[in-house]
Each structure stands twice: as structure tokens, then as C-alpha cells.
Amino acid sequence: MTQLTNRQPFFILLLTVVFLSLYAFQAPAPGPESPDNAGEKAWVDSIYNAMSEDERIGQLFMIRAHSDLGPDHVAKVEQLVKDYHVGSMCFFQGSPEEQIRLINKYQEQSRIPMLMAIDAEWGLGMRMKTSTISFPYQLTLGAIQNNQLLYDMGVEVGKQLLRTGLHINFAPVVDVNNNAANPVINFRSFGEDRYNVTAKSYQYMRGMQEAGLLTSAKHFPGHGDTDVDSHLDLPVITHDRARLDSIELYPFKALIKRGLTGMMIAHLSVPAFDSRKNRPTTLSRATVTRLLRDSLGFDGLIYTDALEMKGVTKHFAPGETEAEAVMAGADVLCLPEDLGAALREIKRYLADGKIDPSQVEASVKRILRAKYRLGLTRFTPIPQQNVREELNNREALALKQTLLENAMTLVRNPGDLIPFNDLDTTTYASLSIGSGVRTPFQNRLADYVEMPHLQVGKEISGGKADELVSSLSKKDVVIIGLHNMSSRASQNYGITQSTINFVRRLAGQTKVVLVVFGNPYSLKYFDELDWVLEAYQEDGTSQDVAAQALFGAFPIRGRLPVTASDKSRFNTGVSTRASIRLGYALPEAVGMDSDTLSQIGDLIRNAIDTGATPGAVVLIAKDGRVVFHEAYGHHTYSKSQVMERDDIFDLASVTKIAATTMSIMRLQGEGKLDIDHPLSQYFGDLANSNKKDLVPREIMAHRAGLHPWIPFFEQTLSGTKKNPKPSSKYYRSAASGDYTIPVTEKLFMRQDFADSIWQQIIHSELRANKNYVYSDLGFYMLGRTVGQVSGTPIEQYVEQNFYHPLGLQTATYNPWMKYDPTTIVPSERDQYWRQQKVQAYVHDMGAAMLGGVSGHAGLFADANDLAILLEMVRRGGHYGGRRYLKKEVINDFTHRFTGDSRRGIGFDMLELNNDKPANLSRLASTRTFGHLGFTGTAVWVDPDQDLIFIFLSNRTYPSMYNRKLGSANFRPRVQDVVYKAIR
């Protein structure tokens, strides 16, 4: 791991960010252009010459518009368009559908199509929070080291705004925020470093403009170093010209050189540019014209900040404000308070010679040129159909997650505690402060390791603190999430003193990992903490990503974009190694298509409707990420219990790979067993049998000459063939005396019959040849061999060597001993032996008669646990910072047995003989390995596609004789969809 902090030579940091900044400026990014200069000039001149004076002035006005304020507001806007010939609108809150409807309506009423703008710094979600995507705040983005991602975001934001009829985004914010108390810029800035702000502003701008949008950098000449909100008063920036030129102006100058299309002027008093008292830069010709236009050479559109803000209205009257802004050199007057007064005063300034008519002409023609380049010579209505679905597209959501992943910043990490490694030897707990319910952060933590999840309010009383410290201090690691924070320094960023005191107190008694879902300036309160992850934002995706970061689903690379304290300075951050565990993402993040995957639901609903299975769970992982995990139907056809994603299933023969083969591979890698030596060397009971020369390799490939199975349970029945019952000779309804083997909760078998089972297996006849015949008998013996070689029964061996250290939470034999039966899917209503519903006890008869544990069946698990186990195998036996299996052993076991068209060693594989039935999707690669289970399960790993497919069902309920799931090939058909979804 590496760490970059303020303790390293500053010149290294400087050279690094300068290099990154220069690298970002490899190519210019012009906005929408007209290749037809003659046609553009002719159109602009003709429109301008046909205008009256009032119409020309009207082009300078940008009025406020909402799509959620009802008919009175709409009527008012329509009247303003009619009366004042306004040139543009700025939209605020509403919905995308209504915004499009109103834009179409307003444009229809305007002789010259209007420019439509919005303040969408982090996308449409800034104004349409509940219906569109909010991308990360700029301060969050400031932590990202890969600036290409900001370009990608810019392209997506540009597309989304254009789709809703907009042409201008008042973004990016290029203010260098070097004042922690700034109440108005703060999290809207990329941070305190001019190079970082410049590089990221450029990429965001470039992306939006290349998508076809006009952008507007703001807030010129720099709003970052103030503690006054210009919405409420006029901030004063007292720096001299040299300082302003080197810091505040730096990003603006860089973007001007790279094709910036618009600039918004802030309401600031900057004596270095204009010494008049209470003179906002918006109304300062020295700032707008002489500095921005003449000195810096900016020829794009110049917008005022909202002219209804107190930073300007406190010192200037309506009408006067707008006239002074035009005189200063502004092209577009945003949100004037009184259009009538503004029109009158501008005309008066023109008549009095205060405003040069040529200046108005230049501004109007600049606006008209922008309209021509945007195709607004005539208006084409915007379609409303499917707009919400298009805006909330999965590629955009996947991009949002990628941005947040890259922003996660590990501020301190002594001893490399993060990502967490030892899940089996470390105890964990989580505490969410500021939330009254279990958070998305805690929900994702729960996917990695079992732990208690607590919540508490921001004010933690002494008694509550005592209670929490008493319980949490017993844990090795406590993960604390800070929630519902504030961005404002004046509110201590939403952190109470009681929270600070509690966190410090607990950190004195155990390891506390603090995760801050809010402003990084708040880190100043937690300098004493050793482990801190800055997650920047509160939304569900941020919380999900933060939990994944702690467990190593992706490398942490973010750097603090601001300085909070001496121990949390700009560019501080610890980088962690590459992904060590499964992550969770959208299909689009790994090049899969969500719409295609939705067909899985159609197939399984068809399976349910046709009686193939009561329900199912499907999980898909690709490239180390779970990208699809859905539950369908119910536990039974009575529909009394809905199927859940974390329900536990009887895996049947998947046990062969998830328990027995895993164990044999480990013992082989440790040199404790050789699959090419006779099994009798390890399982001594075979020494004097006809099986003394059988080798595990052949047994595991089902080529050892063993018979398929022995129906042991039939030997213990009484009654008639039509009405069989468990014989009282072998069973009791409650455990007593020698009847202690639990077949079900109501059926206990006599102990000595288990010995009879083993003797029958050991002395069973062999077939005449070793052609392929699928057999359970060999895996009975292999399961017992694991116990004899390791000195530990197989159920304990897999728990100790795989399931517990991997953090699996459901994988187990005999789940009735550990879990609520209602979370375990029933497998059958047995009417041929047990005479009851089989739930939480193994369905397989032989495994049931051995107390639920065998090498061929008996394992239960949920889909997530299976995904983790198989991901470990896919990664060559290494997972979570620990090696479980040797890669060369895995390679041996997952290659076909010599001369076989289907079987590996323990693993099933794609059947290569097309004359035989397909056991999985024909679209899978030939190297795909896994297994099917009798109860309706399937697990497959395709190493060529880095793909894991898990299908869990209870097709045997209510009867195991129901073969519809297999006869209709539902499992391969679902898997077909998965491959078709790969782009």
C-alpha cells in the first residue's frame, strides 16, 4: 500500500498535479459549432434586422420557469414570453415529462426559439431529485484520480439535458474552494487546489460540450474564498490582483483557452478589479468587459448570476440592476426581478448613451449564433414518450457507481487493517450514527460477514453511550457510519459534541473504523482516529460502495480534495491493493445488458406458472461483481411465503463440488492425498474389498465402475407399496436410546443402520466396465475419506477451512441446528418414506440416514454464499487476501477427464457431444465447470467469460417426481439469457 500525505516534499505533489492537469488538456473541446459560417451569418443578420428594439432587448432576458408550480405559474410565464419576447428560460424543480411538455408549449408561442437552461451541476437530479439521476457532487469528484471519468459523466449529463429540451447547463463550478466556512460553494467545488479544479472542470466541460450542450463555468471571477452567501448579501473578496490571477482566475483562464462556451458572473465585490463600494462584479464593466472579454479574450456567452439574489438587489433597484449588467457587458440577464422595469431602464440607458447600441447588437447576435449552432432556427417538439426510462438508464447508474468507487478516500489506515482480511478470527459490529433504521451501508456490510448492526441518533446520552461502549468494546472492529450530516461549517457539519465524545471514547477501547457520509471538512473532529474512510455523500449508492470498499471489492484510490486539518490535508489518501472480494454492481458496469437479463424473470415466471417449481433465486456474477440477484415466486404453491434472495436451499449434488471436491482439492494441494493413488490408502475399510484399487480421479469423474446409488431407505419401510411407512424397527418419533440419528424433526433412525449403509457401499458390486455412469456411491466414500485424512469430519472440515474464513453465513450441513426454518426452502412433501414436509433437513435419502452429512449431498446455502465460494475458485484459489487452494490443483480438477466429453474431476462440464442432451447452455465456453443438483439447483463457472451462474429452486416440492424443470430445460434457457446479455 502507498500513502501520499503532506509530509512528503511538496514539489513532488506539485509536479504530479501539474502533469495530470496538462495531460487533461490534450485536445480542445469546442461546443456546438456551425461549419456553415456564411449560412449562420445570413440567418443571424436576417433575424436581427427583422427585430424591433424591444425584441432585441428581450433576447437578453432569461426568465425563471418551473414544471411543478401549476397553471398560474404557467400562465405567467406565457405572458412574459408574449409581452417581452424573452430569449431564454431557466428551468428549476419539476419532472422531466412536465418540463418537456412546457418547453414544447412555450417554444410554440415564441417566434424565435428560446434557449433553455438549467442549473444541473450534478445532473438533472439537482432539480428533479426523485425522478432523475443525481451524479456525485463536485467535491466528491474532486477526490477522483482518473479524470477521464469526469468526461464520461459530462457526456451523460449532456445527453440527459438535451433529451429534456435543454441547451445550457450552468456548470461546471470552477471556483477554487479554499475557505472551509464557505456557505454557498463548498461541496459544489472540486476542491482547494487550482490544478485539480482545472483538470476536472475541463473534462466535465469537454464531455458536456461534445455531447452538444452549451456550458457555463462559474462563478467568475471566483467565489471560493468567502464565508458570505451571495444569495443573502454581497461577499467581499479582498485579495490583490496577483493572488486572484494565480488562484481564483487560473481555472477560468484555462477553460477559456480550451473552448468554453459560456461564463457566469458572480455577485462579488472585488476591489482589485473595481474599487467602487458595493459594486457587484456582475455590474462591473471593469470585470466583465475589460477583464473577461478584453484581457482574457473570452468570446462566449456571458451570463449574470441570478439577478434576484440579495448580493445585487440589496444595493440596486429593479431595472437599474439589469441596465447596469448590460452596460457591464453581460449577454444574458438571468432571472430579472421585474422585466417591465428592466426593459424601460435598458432603453433609457441606450437613449442616454450609457449603453452603446453596438454592445447590445453584439450580445443579441452572440445569442442568435448560439441558437443557430444548436439547430434552433426552427423548433422541433421534444418527444415525451419513455423519457424517464431513458434518463434513468442503467449505463448512467453504473457510471455513477464507478465515480463513487473512484472517489472513496482512505484517509488513514495503520497496519493495513483495510480491506478487512481475517473474517474468521476477527469479530465485527456496525453502528450507524444519525439514523434510526438499518442503513444501506449496513445492509451491504451484512453480505460480507455476520455482525450485529446498531443505530443511534446524533445526540448520544451518557447512559446510551455507556451501553454502547459496554457492548461494542467487546468486538475487535467497530465500523461507525456518520449519517445525515450537514455541508455547513456553521452547523459543525451536522456532528454533535456527544457524537464526537462517544466516537473518541470507543476508539480508546477497540478498533474503530469511521466512515464519513458527508463533508470532508468534518474530518477535523476526528484526528485522533486511526482508521477513517471518507465517503463524501449519503445516498444509497455511496453507502453501498463504502461497505464494498472496506471489504476489498475494489481498490481504494481517492485523495482528499480539501484540507480539513493537519492530519487530513489536501491529497491525503491511502491506496489499497486490487480487488480481493466479490463486489456488487449493475450489469452495465461489466458490459451486460439489464433489459436482456430481465427476460430471466419471464422464463422463471413461466416455470412457476407451468408447475415446474414454486420459486427460484438466480444470481449472476461477472468480472468479480454480483450484477444480478433476484428471487421469484414462493416457497410453495400455496404462496404463503414469498421467496427471498437470501433464502437457504438444499443444494443436493452441488454438495459434491461445494464440499467434497473443495476438500479433496485442498488435501491434494497440501500433499495429504493423491487422487491418482488408491482410495484404500486413505479409507482403510476398502483395503479388503473389491474397491481397494479404485483411485479418486476415476471416482470423481464417475468412471470407477460404481453403481449409481442404493435405495437404503426402502430397506427400512413397512406397510404396503401404496402406503409405505417408516418401520418401527428402525425409527422413533423422538430421540431415545439407540434411535438418535435425526432424519427429520419427527423421525430418528437407529444408529446401527448407518453402519449397515457403509457396509453395503463398501461391499457393493462393481460394474463390468468403467464407462461413464453417474454415481453417488463414490462421493459417500470421498466424504468419509476427507474426515479420515484430515482427522476432522467433513462438515467441520469445510466450515473451518472454507466457509468460516470466507465469511459465508448460510453454507452448512443440517441448517435446522442454526437457522430459522422459515428461511429454509422446503424440498418435498414426502409420501413415500418420511410422511411429512421436508424442510431444513436434507432431502436426499442416503444423506438423511447418515444424520444429514455426506459427501454426495446434505449441504445447504444461499446464492450469495455459493457465489463467494465459486469466486474463490475462479480466482485460482485466492480470495480475501488468503489462499485456499492451489491454482494448479484447480486447473487439474476443472479439466476434462481423459477421453470424457463432459466430466472433470468432481466437476461437471459442458457436454461436448452434441448427440447427448445439453447439461447447460450451449453458449457457455467449453471450459465451463460446475454441477447440477437434484432439487433443482445449478452452479456454473465460465472462466473464459469470468462468469458465475447460480440457479436455486425447489422443483422437488411438493413431489420429487416433478421433472418439468429439466424436461423444459429451464436452467439452460435461463443461462442462455445470461450469455445473450453479454455485449
TrEMBL record:
GO molecular function annotations of the record: beta-N-acetylhexosaminidase activity
UniProt keyword annotation of Chaperone present: no
Signal peptide positions (record): 1-29
Keyword Signal recorded: yes
Enzyme class: hydrolase
Segments forming domain Glycoside hydrolase family 3 N-terminal: 54-369
Documented EC number(s): 3.2.1.52
Gene Ontology biological process terms in this record: carbohydrate metabolic process; peptidoglycan turnover
Keywords: Glycosidase, Hydrolase, Signal
Family in the record: Belongs to the glycosyl hydrolase 3 family.
Name of protein: beta-N-acetylhexosaminidase
Protein's organism: Flavilitoribacter nigricans (strain ATCC 23147 / DSM 23189 / NBRC 102662 / NCIMB 1420 / SS-2)
